[in-house]
Amino acid sequence: MAWTARIVTASLSISLAACSANEKETVADDSAPTNFSEAESKVSTNPLKNAYFGELHLHTAYSLDAYIFGTKLNTPFEAYKFAKGQTIDMPAGGTKTIIAPLDFTAITDHGEALGEYELCTSEQSPKYDSEICKGIRAGDQKPFGEIFAGVSKVPAQRYTPICDEDGKICRDYAGKPWQNIQKAADQNYEPGKFTSFVAYEFSANAPEGKGGMMHRNVIFRSNRVPQTIFSAFEGTGEQLHVWLDKNCTGDCKVLAIPHNPNFYWGRLFWGKNSDGTEWTKDQVERRARLEPLVEIMQVKGNSECQTGIGTTDESCNFETVFKKCAPGENAGCSNENAFVRNGLKKGLLEYDKWGVNPFKYGFVGGTDNHNGTPSDTTESDFKGHYAKNDFDPAVRLGLKANPTAEQMGLSGAEDPTRFYNPGAITGVWAEANTRPAIWDALARRETFATSGTRTKVRMFGGFAIPAGADKQADWVKIGYKDGVPQGGTLTRPGKDAPRFILYAQRDPNSAPLHRLQIIKGWADASGKTHEMTYDVACSDGMAPGADGKCPDNGAGVDLATCKQTGGKGSAMLSATWQDPKFDPKQKAFYYLRVLENPVCRWSMYDSINNKLPYPKDLPKTIRERAWSSPIWYMPET
Amino acid sequence: MVLADLVHAGNLRMANTDTAGKRGLKSSLLREPLVHFLIGGLALFALYGLVGQPDEAQSRKIVIDKDTIATLAAQYEATWQRPPTQEQLSALVNDHVREEVLYREGLSLGLDRDDAVVKRRLSQKVEVLSEEYGGSKVPDDRDLQAYLEKHADTYRQPGTYTFEQVLLVPERHPDVEAALATARRQLAAGERPDGLGDAGLLPARVYDASQTVVIRDFGKNFAAALDKAGRQGWIGPVRSNLGLHLVRLTEHKAGGLPPLAQVKGLVAEDMEEHRRKAAAESYFKQARQNYSIEIDKSALKVPG
What interface predicted TM-score (ipTM) does this complex get? Predict the structure, then answer.
């Protein structure tokens, strides 16, 4: 009897167990990529450019971590439906529809476990019936932990129970999902209406562990892409750059975007390679060329700045995840190298060493959500970002540990989930909604990021811009004629200090605007960096007071209902601002930030809707915001 | 229709899987080479078993013919993106023989009976085959057009608006009525809207925007006003979250059914999916009549 029973278990489970659920969409063929250039050339263009909103950081079932946490049905094919406004199923139950459709989306599944995903979910795979793969399909988190622990090793090591000693089978099996990613992108590309980018995430982990990530989203300009991908198992971020230079040539064009610097454990802006080796000129040059952008905010926190860490700007305390590091610490906490604003300042000094600025970053925002729902960023209907892991509102509020944290022995209070947020959005100013137009806008940094709303911001800077230009109906034309747009660089000083035209327009679906700010960072002759935040336009017709700050407009929130109360706020804010302390010898950068009137934070909605106690360490309201990419002043020497 | 016909029809469809629908369990199942193989083998076995052919389990002959080898090679190539080497092909055949031997041993031991997984798998296979119940023909344009019209709600496209607008932000004007009057006068004198009203980030002219896009950029109130606007020239002020707008609708393309040519692929796919579901349901209904089914109703009650 025992013998029969063993035989039954051993043989009949082979390949028969799989079809119980429609676990994945498998569509791959080897046809040459569609040529969209004719369709693209027919799209009408606006030389003064339009604002387009989109997602540049999203995981679907193809990311093995998302899959294990329950995102099994939301493949890239479903994610594009969500981006276009269709209602889709959420991984842990219920359905969701985006508040307004997106203009573009790049789906960035983890390159690291694409092969492992395919090996464990494709019935033909030789590993399909292994205990590990069965566990993965059943949502066992242990193999997930082990696969991703291998990424933190130096050098990164594949998980041998699935990938064998040489890892070859995992590299080979990544081919099919990589083709499906391309296929989903091409199927959903509608030049003039909706742009999809072929993309993936390179996910190297920091050797300190503790969840440290040194990740980059790799975004291709067209469907001419390398046949394989380069993951953290193949090398470091710096080796990724070399690989892209070698394997993405001719019609293939690519950029890489480092994301959430707050989780890099300081390794993004520390002035060395990610593994701690010293930079070479080639490495700095490649980095500057391939990485024009940085993700300033996402689900796992805002990385613009944190009050008390290189800045006194009180508005920096917004959706930050970690406390300030103790001296000498860098992991699981915030140090001075964890933030974009500090990185921009440091970049001015690095320029002196290398003749090129390795931190010349424009801004994008993303979600990094693992539900397959791009730009699912609305505070009022946030249902978590990580499938079954944080679908329970008690988990999101930190009243209970999430299943992964629980397995790691953490309590709800120790789990950082409650400090996370629904994520950010990227905006671009581009001539048309096509792959080349939007990708080129990304490459020239004519971008902005919002903390999740569809607020639009635009900035021009130049020495010839006249006073009061923002009141001119043709201010955009003036901006392009007499200055450079956000992301650009001024090199020759004029007679006077440069002027900046600054504009912000509210999202009709969010709160009105409260104040428009410009943030200046500069380096002095002694090699020290400085920064200053100026309020340049205030809501409700008010002006900055003697302290240089906009007065309170009286706007508030009724915490029983989350309705906005009090002050009106403004639909639009603008200014033409001239730098009062301009020094033509000092390198500098300027970027715009606009703050909205306060609204309830997602956690407040969670607490009200589910009648749960509100954690003491969470803010009840937030000011949503938008940031333009900087304009640099780099005097020619 | 007997099952043998279904098996035949199913095999025909295997040859056409590339043009089959792309959605749902059945279609993704059908694209799996293993399934092709298993349906070719296992389902035939099931068929022979049912119609009283010599039991494969009893047979002691295993034939690895040209087709089997070609299938194994194709399967390998689909997975690894390259053809197998001689050595690999031999190994594939050996594995296949091994599997076949153990499989037949399992059958003769009766291990397939009362196994939930085997049951589910076989019932799925019959379901896949039954999707060809009643036969299928490639629909022509007239069939597709009829389907499109019958399911108009699924394919109806939203209306689009082309319009011009001038924005006035009340807080920028001590007397906004006067500012509106000035703008109206300028428009009436034939001035282009581009330079009028308050400068901002809104376009003066919007082309072919769906209602969703109008709502996204201008808000619900504005979209509703636009929807009611005729072609009587400049109207307003229309209030939005952004301020007051003078608006001129220049073109409203009614939403509606797109021409077949525009959505042909989608309709064909949906129609095929629909036909399959209906065929499987119809087959099931008929097959069910061959069984007498007794359900213990007293045990069916959920306690409480």
Answer: 0.75
